[in-house]
Specification:
The complex is a heterodimer of chains A (about 200) and B (about 170). Chain A folds into 2 domains: about 110 residues, no CATH class; about 50 residues, no CATH class. Chain A contains 6 helices and 3 strands; from the N terminus they run H-H-H-H-H-E-E-E-H. A 3-stranded antiparallel sheet of chain A has the order 1-2-3. In chain A, strand 2 and strand 3 form a beta hairpin. Chain B is of the alpha+beta class. Chain B has 2 domains: about 80 residues, no CATH class; about 70 residues, no CATH class. In chain B, about 50% of the residues lie in helices and about 20% in strands. Chain B contains 6 helices and 3 strands, in the order H-H-H-H-E-E-E-H-H. In chain B, a hairpin with a 2-residue loop joins strand 2 and strand 3. In chain B, helix 1 crosses helix 2 and helix 3 crosses helix 4. Classes of the chains: A alpha+beta (about 200), B alpha+beta (about 170). At the A-B interface, helix 3, helix 5, strand 1, strand 2 and strand 3 of A face helix 4, strand 1, strand 2, strand 3 and helix 5 of B. Chain A: It holds the Pfam family COMM_domain. Chain A: Belongs to the COMM domain-containing protein 3 family. Chain A: This is COMM domain-containing protein 3. Chain A: It comes from Balaenoptera acutorostrata. Chain A: InterPro entries: COMM, COMMD3.
Chain lengths: ~200, ~170
C-alpha cells in the first residue's frame, strides 16, 4: 500500500498520547469511519466536546489521514497483519493498534460494500412490471381480438439519480421467447455456482 | 356489414371497367390515379373492417360493374386482406416492441475502488423495434433480480390461461 507523507504524518500525530489521549483517539477514529460510511454524516462529525481542546488544523489532518488510510486498506483488502505493521511504523502503541483493528473489523463489510458500489456499469434492472391487454380495435384496424403484453423494466443508473424505465410491448410468443432466454441465463448461473 | 362508398369514390372506381384486356389506358393520368386510389381505398376499408365475402360482393354490386370484374375484385380482396391487415396494424400507436434478447454471465473480479471481488452479474442486450427502427439497450442485473424477473414474467404468461382471460377471449369476438 502506497501512502503519502501527509497520511504518515497524520498517523504519527494520532499515535502521540500527548496530542490525543485515549478518549480523543477513539472519538477521532470513529469519526473517520462515520464520515466514510454514514450517508447522513456531515462536517459536525468532529464537533465532539472531548475533541474541542485539540487544534482544529491537527484534527482535520488526522481525520483526513485516517480516512485515506481506511479507504486504501479497504480497497486492497488489507488483513490484520498489514494494518498492524503500518501502524507500528507510525509509532502506535499496541493498545491503539488493537483499537484500530477492532474498529476496522467492525466496519469492514460496510466499507467493502461502499467501495464495491463505486464505478461505472450498465444500467441495472431492479424490477419488472407488466400488464396484459386484449386489443379490440384501433382507428386503422377493426376486429383485432388479440392479447398483448406491456412490459416495463425499472432501471437504475450508476449515479442513482436517474431511474428511467424501459417499456415495450410484446405478444405471447415474444414473451415466451423472452422468458425462455432469461430462464436459460438463470440455469447457466445455477450451473456456474456449482462448479 | 356493407361498405359505405361515397359518391366521389364510386366515380373514381367507375374508370375500372374501361381498362381493356390488353391493359392499355387511354385516359388522363388523373383519372388513372383516382382509379388506383379508389381501388386502394376499397381494399383497405374492406380489410380494416374484415368484411365477409358476401358483404364485399354486395358493397361492390352498387358500382354496377360486370360479373367478371366483381369476381376479380373479390379475389383481389381475399388474396390480399391478410397482408393489408398486417400493414395496417403497423400504423397503430406504436410502443417499442420486443424483438429479441441476448445475455451473458459475468463475474467482476476487481475495480479501481475494490480489489479481490467475486461479483456475479448478468448482462443483457435487449433488441427492440420501433417504427421500423431497430433499437438496442444494454442492461445488467444481479442473480437475485434475474430470478425475480423470471418469476414475475412467468406469472404474466400464466394469466392468459386463467378462466377470466379465457372467458374474455371466448366472448369478445
Amino acid at each position: 500500500m502506497e501512502l503519502s507523507e501527509y497520511v504518515q504524518k497524520g498517523f504519527q500525530m494520532l499515535a502521540d498520547p500527548g496530542s490525543f489521549d485515549s478518549n480523543a483517539f477513539t472519538l477521532l477514529l470513529r469519526a473517520a469511519f462515520q464520515s466514510l460510511l454514514d450517508a447522513q454524516a456531515d462536517e459536525a462529525v468532529l464537533d465532539h466536546p472531548d475533541l474541542k481542546h485539540i487544534d482544529p488544523v491537527v484534527l482535520k489532518h488526522c481525520h483526513a489521514a485516517a480516512a485515506t488510510y481506511i479507504l486504501e486498506a479497504g480497497k486492497q483488502r488489507a488483513d490484520k497483519s498489514t494494518l498492524s505493521t503500518y501502524l507500528e511504523d507510525c509509532k502506535f502503541d499496541s493498545e491503539r493498534i488493537e483499537l484500530f483493528c477492532t474498529e476496522y473489523q467492525n466496519n469492514k463489510n460496510s466499507l467493502e460494500i461502499l467501495l464495491g458500489s463505486i464505478g461505472r456499469s450498465f444500467p441495472h434492472i431492479t424490477d419488472v412490471s407488466w400488464h396484459l391487454e386484449y386489443q379490440i380495435k384501433t382507428n386503422q384496424l377493426d376486429k383485432m381480438y388479440r392479447p398483448a403484453y406491456l412490459v416495463t423494466l425499472n432501471v437504475e443508473n450508476t449515479d442513482s439519480r436517474s431511474h428511467p424505465e424501459i417499456s415495450f410491448s410484446c405478444n405471447m410468443e415474444q414473451l415466451q421467447d423472452l422468458v425462455g432466454k432469461l430462464k436459460d441465463a438463470s440455469k447457466s448461473l445455477e450451473r456456474a455456482t456449482q462448479l | 356489414m356493407l361498405l359505405d362508398l361515397s359518391e366521389e369514390h364510386k366515380e373514381h372506381l367507375a374508370f375500372l371497367p374501361q381498362v381493356d384486356s390488353a391493359g392499355k389506358l387511354s385516359v388522363s393520368s388523373d383519372t388513372v390515379q383516382h382509379g388506383v386510389e379508389g381501388l386502394i381505398h376499397l381494399l383497405t376499408e374492406s380489410s380494416k373492417l374484415m368484411i365477409s365475402e358476401l358483404d364485399f360482393q354486395d358493397s361492390v354490386f352498387v358500382l354496377g360493374f360486370s360479373e367478371e370484374l366483381n369476381k376479380l375484385l373479390l379475389q383481389l380482396y381475399l388474396d390480399n386482406r391478410k397482408e393489408i391487415r398486417t400493414i395496417l396494424s403497423e400504423l397503430a400507436p406504436d410502443l417499442p416492441s420486443y424483438h429479441s434478447l441476448e445475455w451473458r454471465l459475468d463475474v467482476q473480479l476487481a475495480s479501481r475502488s475494490l480489489r479481490q471481488q467475486m461479483k456475479p452479474s448478468v448482462t443483457i442486450k435487449l433488441h427492440l423495434n420501433q417504427n421500423g427502427d431497430h433499437n438496442t439497450q444494454v442492461l445488467q442485473t444481479d442473480p437475485a433480480t434475474l430470478l425475480h424477473l423470471v418469476q414475475q414474467l412467468e406469472q404474466a404468461l400464466e394469466e392468459m390461461k386463467t378462466n377470466h382471460c379465457r372467458r374474455v377471449v371466448r366472448n369478445i369476438k
